[in-house]
């Protein structure tokens, strides 16, 4: 959950709670300003990276030792989700990938994000981690992947079920 804004970024007045667009939102009371903090979700892309019948899972810097997830990243200005997911795979793993399919779009309310998840197939090159973002990776056979309940785990569960697997959540 995000911390509510206290002051208007345009005119520096203290923001108040006011009805806008059918909800209560933080807004500037100064009539000449008109600023409303909509707090729209941030678009994030996620890649289910498959290579050699395995899924590549990554551990972000700062995560506990046993936590692994999908390659993810923020969508950049002027970039399509398809371009963004392929860029993230190349930046974080050093691999070129081919877009196979959109898996789905998922609300990740806790982080105020919308996740656009794709299945990508990576080339057989050497994985080179972006060590500013990732601490480790592992390649897990499809039959042994266990999704998690939050965020990108829903996409991974859907991906596995579409391939005939019946995994249980961690």
Structural class: mainly beta
Mean of residue pLDDT values: 95
What share of the residues lie within helices?
10-25%
Mind telling me the C-alpha Rg? 19 Å
- In CATH, the homologous superfamily of the largest domain goes by the name Nucleoside Triphosphate Pyrophosphohydrolase
Bin the strand percentage.
Answer: 35-45%
What is the 3D shape?
Answer: elongated
N- to C-terminal separation? 24 Å
Which residue ranges are poorly predicted, with pLDDT under 50 across at least 5 consecutive positions?
none
Taking the sheet with the most strands, its summary is: 6 strands, mixed
Q: What's the total count of β strands? A: 9
Instruction: State the domain count.
Output: 2
Supply the CATH architecture of the largest domain: Alpha-Beta Complex
Total number of helices: 2
Element order: H for helix, E for strand: EEEEEEHEEEH
What top-tier CATH class of the largest domain fits best?
Alpha Beta
Assign the CATH topology of the largest domain. Nucleoside Triphosphate Pyrophosphohydrolase
């Amino acid at each position: 959950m995000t911390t509510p804004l206290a002051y208007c970024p345009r005119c520096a007045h203290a923001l108040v709670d006011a009805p806008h667009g059918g909800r209560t939102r933080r807004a500037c009371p100064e009539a000449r300003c008109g600023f409303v903090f909509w707090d729209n979700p941030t678009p994030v892309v996620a890649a289910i990276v498959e290579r050699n019948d395995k899924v590549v899972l990554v551990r972000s810097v700062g995560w506990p030792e046993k936590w692994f997830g999908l390659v993810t990243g923020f969508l950049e200005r002027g970039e399509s989700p398809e371009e963004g997911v392929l860029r993230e795979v190349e930046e974080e793993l050093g691999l070129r990938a081919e877009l196979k399919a959109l898996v789905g779009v998922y609300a990740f309310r806790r982080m105020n994000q919308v996740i656009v998840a794709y299945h990508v197939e990576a080339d057989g090159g050497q994985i080179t981690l972006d060590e500013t973002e990732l601490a480790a990776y592992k390649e897990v056979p499809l039959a042994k992947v266990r999704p998690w309940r939050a965020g990108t785990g829903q996409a991974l569960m859907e991906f596995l079920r579409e391939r005939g697997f019946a995994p249980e959540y961690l």
